Each structure stands twice: as structure tokens, then as C-alpha cells.
Amino acid sequence: MKSVFVTGATGILGSAVCEQLVAQGDNVRAIVRDLARPDAVALRKAGVETVLGDVADRESIQAATEGMDAVIHSAAVLGRPGVQLEECISANVVGTLNVMSAAAAGGLPMVQVITLTFFDTAVDPLTETSPLDLLYRRNDPYSLTKRLGYVEGMARVADGQDIRFMLPGAIYGPSVCLEKTAAPNTWNGRLARAIKGEMDAQLPLPIPYVTAADCAFVCIAALEKGKAGQRYIAHGVQKETNTMAGYGNRACEIADVPYRVQEIAKDRMDDPDIIAKFGPTMPIMVKSGSPDPLFDSSRTEREFGYVPTSIEQGFPVTIDWLKRSGFL
Known about the structure:
With 328 residues, this protein is of the alpha/beta class. The protein has a domain at 3-172 and 211-236 and 293-309: NAD(P)-binding Rossmann-like Domain (Rossmann fold, 3-Layer(aba) Sandwich), CATH 3.40.50.720. 42% of the residues lie in helices and 12% in strands. The protein is built from twelve helices and nine strands. β4 (70-73), α4 and β5 (110-113) form a beta-alpha-beta unit. α1 crosses α7, α4 (85-106) runs parallel beside α5 (141-158) and α6 (187-195) crosses α8. The protein starts with a strand and ends with a helix.
């Protein structure tokens, strides 16, 4: 049994990490900004200790890590429409520095959740050893600040701190936390909008859909079996990679509804209306291009015995959860 401090626990990945750790008998502590919110209550019902704090507040992070054996850091401000650089810096840079420093002070191994957007995947598939994009093609607030957090993490690894890195794809699936995990701009929320016939035309961007349970498995395996400085990938089944329209239409087929989602032309990625609607990150990714296949996670699969959940397994379970939770 070990004690693990988890950030971002009310999000879809963090909550799945908490559930899996509790299920295997570990003690889990999570930081939340409001102890009375339904998601905080849901975490406590799931067996998680919740403490008041914020990743941007160094003192609360330092206090929350006391007595812990390890840290999994998944908290982040995502690249949603209208996101500002200042709020991304607060969570993705300052917050990450705070968590790293607290882990370093306690000598705790740490798993840092990062993103694929700042690696060079214009030609070659994303792998566990992909280089950084030295041309800095994706300079939106989310990609920039997550990149800064990763570079800081690698610098600390070079100086001896034990940090492992995990790259999730587009995370979907059931969660005990309902406030954030099926909002309209989440990957669950997008499936719900498609099934309800409310999804407008989508960007022609290949996206690696992956279940929250799979991502949590890789996070925990990185903590228990991984090595400092190494990256691990949870991106779903390689051959099932599709665009949002493709995923939405498959969800509609499984849910037995006639609606079908269309795609936006690639030459519209500089349209201010498109950027305002989808946020800056994904249009930039469309413009910079994608390899085929999009990724190769075979090393992670081999080292951890990781078998990604297929869309045909994950979508029916998720659609049923969306219905039971009132999102459909």
C-alpha cells in the first residue's frame, strides 16, 4: 500500500487515477478548490481524501504532499475556446512548478501529465522519444505553457529529480465526477452533442480517442514501473484513429440515431470564427499537418502490458453512462 497525492482529481483523468489507486488498496489524497462541490463529494464517496487548496498556491501544495509516497500531476487549464495565456501560466506553469517543488522537497517520485501538441509530429508518428517541435508551430496558450512545464520537468530530471511523463490522447469515458467530465467541450460532451444532433461541422483533425481508464492505467504503471525522464503514451488503438466527425458518427450509429456530423474544409483554419469556436490549439494542429499513423505507443504497450480499449468496447459503455448521468 502506498499514499499518492493526485492533482486535477475532479477532471476525467485525475478521477480515474483516483478510482484505480483506491481499487488497488492505495491511500489517495486530492486537492480541490471547494470541498462542498459535488465532484469533491463524489471523490470522498469513492474513498479519496480531499483537502482544500490550489496548484497555484505553493503553500497548500506543500502541505498536501506531506506524508505522501508519490505524486501524479494531471491538473491543467486546457486549450478551450477563449482561454487566456494568464490562466494557462497560473495552472500549467506556476502550478506545475509548485507541484514539482513539493515533490522534490519530499523526495517523491512524480508522474507529470503532458500533451502531444509541442512535439514534432508533422512528418513522423508520435512516439515515446519524439523530439520537440523546434519550429514552434503550435504557439497557442495551452501548448506553450504545457511545453514550459515539460521543459522544466526535464531540466529537473537532469538535476536528479524523479519525474516520469505521460501523454494522453483525447480522454473519454465514465467518471464519478460529473461537473467537468461531460461539459460541451470535453471529449465526452462532444459525443453527447453528436448523438443529440447538436454537433456542427468539425475540424478535419485526426484525434486519438482513449478511455480515462486506459490513461489512468498508464499513469499508475509509469509511477510503479516507469523510469525518470521517460515518456509513456496512452492514445487508444492506433488503427482506430479518426476525426471528431468520424467518432461522432460512430457514436450516432451505436446509439441508433440518424444524425451525421460534417467536416470543415482545411483551408478555413485561419478564419477568426473557426478559432473563436474551437480555440487556437486544434486549428493550428490541422495547419501543421499529421503523420499516418498518428502515433506509435508500442513501447508503452510492451513495457507495461498495456492493451488499449477499442472504440467498439469503450463507446457503448460511455453512451450508457451518459444516459444514466442525464447527459443524453
